[in-house]
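Supplementary Note 3. Input sequence used for the single-chain structure prediction.
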Amino acid sequence: MSAPNKSYDPVEVEALKPEEIARMRDAALAAFAAAGDLEALREAKVAHTGDRSPLALANREIGALPPQAKADAGKRVGGARGEVSRALKAREKELEAERDARVLVEEAVDVSLPYDRVQPGARHPLTTLSERIEDVFVAMGYEVAEGPEAEAEWFNFDALNFEPDHPARAMQDTFFVRPGEGRGADGPDAESGIVLRTHTSPVQIRSLLDREPPVYVVCPGRVYRTDELDATHTPVFHQVELLAVDEGLTMADLKGTLDHMVQSLFGEGMRTRLRPNYFPFTEPSAEMDMECYVCRGASVGNPDRPCRTCGSEGWIELGGCGMVNPRVLVACGVDPEKYSGFAFGFGIERMLMFRHNVEDMRDMVEGDVRFTRPFGMEI
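The predicted structure, written as discrete structure tokens, is reproduced below.
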């Protein structure tokens, strides 16, 4: 039996030649030295020590060598990888020390300075928007009028032509402070219940009683209804209503006023439209829509451009309006044969949602400064 043949030359693999191993090692060391921060060093680490790095691939080639050549190749590759690993750790320590020293300088805090523990707040956007709306109408010659929030039922319902059995008077719709027996009474001095006003229209009644026509008033304020608090409803919200009573006023005057208001608040070129509706205190009555400020009507009939804001209808409902019902004028002592008027109203919260893409009305009432601060301190 012959002895094992140990005299043949081992197979040479290009990646395992000494000069090639040295080249891979030197490339890794140069990459580590050139890394200027820890992020760059992490990238160099993956490139030169990862599973797909040149030295890792060379290490896999050792298995293809004859037994006589494996030991020598393993020493060369292992030695190179050890040098690379030690150089990586040393460079990592250097960069960490540089980072820590830089942080101490850049993020230094002078603890001797006084610190204001109360963070700056911001005006609530509802206040800002309400005042902006007032400015639009004051510039047109209107007067800002206010009234009590706990209101006599006569002002809130009777003078506005709400019948004694109108559903809006029910306890499930209205907060009653003191129920009364004077529903349907003939004047403000009659015994009447006290309610938290459900709209700012009572301010219009008080304005007509306190002033001689012509009357041009805008009435912003807080109102109350027995709604559940959710993303689009709240039991306490804000309304702004407008009343104009003068000789010869028509629906054309109402439409022109609405157009001016919408363009002042949402931009030039915004259109409005009126849809027939019913309200006890106006006749004729209408629902006012404005053109969608997002798609400007381009989504209508266009499945390629859907609009979530208007539901691809091209219009957004804003509020109710109409010519003042003659019965309301008579209740306030105004001659309906001589004077006519128009009125409209809408919710300020809803206007804020439209203007600033606020999705949840609860954000407006929770008092979180993270909601109000982005609106700034506009005065």
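Residues 125 and 298 are 30 Å apart (CA to CA). The beta strands are 143-144, 150-152, 176-178, 194-196, 215-224, 236-246, 272-279, 282-291, 315-324, 340-347.
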